[in-house]
Amino acid sequence: MRRSKRGDVATLLTLAFLLSTFGFLLKPVCSAQALVGSQIQSSSALRLSSDIIEQALTPIGGKRLSVIVQLQGPTSAILTSAILLLGGQIKTTYTNFYVLEVEIAETSLLSLAALPGVSYVSLNRPVSMLGHLSFTTGADNADTPNSSSPALDGTGIGIAILDSGLYAGHRSFLGKNNNCRIVFNKDFTTEKRVDDPYGHGSHVAAIAAGNGRVSNGAYLGIAPNANLINLRVLDSKGSGTTSGLLSALDWVISNRSSYNIRVLNLSLGTAAVDSFVNDPICKVVRRLSDLGIVVVVAAGNNGRDAEGRKIYGAIHSPGIEPSAITVGASNTFGSDTRADDTVTTYSSRGPTRGFRTDANGVKHYDNLIKPDLVASGNKIISAEAIKNLLVTSHPELDAGVSNADNRKMMRLSGTSMATPVVAGAVALVLQANPQLTPNLVKALLMYTAQPLPGFNIFEQGMGEVNIEGAIRLAKLVRTDLSNSTNLGTALLVGSTPIASTTIGGYTFTWSQGLVLNYTYASGTDLINSFQKIYRLGVLLGDGVLSGDGVITGDARMLMSSVSIGNNLMVSNGVIAGDGLVFCAYGVLLGDGVLLGDGQVIGDGVIAGDSRGVIAGDTQVTGDDTACMAEISDPGL
Q: In sequence order, what are the beta bridge partners of 500?
């Protein structure tokens, strides 16, 4: 193809400008000594995630990496040209946030991070799944239908399932008029299919919204008439990428109104290396929350090591994001009563251990309290996708319910299964009161949760989800609240409800508390009076100031009548903060000094800084192995 001389001149002028502007970037730094000697390269290293700094400092050959590049603003032609000049290739752009997926040689990583307009560079990390229900969760007795108030079943609420796809032919996904409730399908892998050859996504979706048409309602989902949006981000082997997940989240932002997407279910995750402040998935989850979408995320299945010891600090991303509802797994032992419920041994525990590194090389760990809640996640029977890899590889997972492909059910365990229990609960709560903000939904779920005796706040957050209590309380919350509502304004219409629920003949008291980043708050004014932490655009933890081991309530966001916890507790099963002291909250503020890697915390071991920790269920067989191990372990 011939080009005009005018085009050649323009190209040369552009290259000359780029060389004069970014010429210093064409000399990649290949040693730590060179990095120390260059102020530019030193500052760029702070923009690199910890798991690629070593590759940037000591690159081997011309190995190319896929990285996620966060920008300070829109992509400019100059920045795009500079990336190309460095030998980079832009693989993916996004519509609703300033992020690029770039493939580039590791020799150019520092130069890439030093480009004006680049704020942070991290690996395009692998993403993987983590892996009578309606009665024991309280969904069945959450509402008594009558002529003026029909039963709550999720009607009209869109739940986006970001997973391995959905088997649309399964009877569990039919609506009341025998229409398929999977209203949209899109693939974000390279396989160009939207079904579920792996088997994880269909199981997850039916927990959240299965209609119970198999076995006479024995396996009814939580919100059985909610609409499902199938966004396939995991491939036929259960694997995905950060860039693919970001593309799906980008689609949700653009299309949320068309499908009334109010809830996202993320029964997946990746290694929590970066602080939530820099983690690209966490930042998009925050954006979604600020837009009014509730994001429910699995805590992970890394709660114990090979010797069976408890591990603390193994929450994965985006479960480390404070705006998300992070869910651990409880064990109901197959009974309807809540009297014997426990936290499973495999459920990941807090605190969160993502970190950032300052200019002096000191790591600052997030150390947030997670999970926020736990929910039934052990040996859950739900929809089985036709000829899926999980059952093909492990026939014992088939629950033996039916021989018909569209009625088969399978059994899995994990926080992957607990997460859609809460996602379904969110759909019911929002159907009961569509005006609730994500923060208020999260607050109602925590406030009404059942504290499980013998488990500390890092294991269960505020306790086991109680759908009956959350819906009863949601119906009382005023519908005229806004960001301009004054602190202390009456929150409820009518009197304060009795703070207890009876399920399966067992009556328990609500936690009456909230997790707030490093500590917890308690008191009836959390539901009697409007707190500014319930608004859009803030975090629940914004009502608490912390520093130097001191935590105090901030009266501009929280009323002075709200009590802030002095210690983190092992629950006695009554209310939040009522139990034995597990550790002082000041321990959480040590940035790896008071709470260092490998140190003992209470009754277990704290995980390292997450480098080398694999999020997901790939440690045993490469498939849904945590789920496999959990099912085969009689102690769970």
A: 509
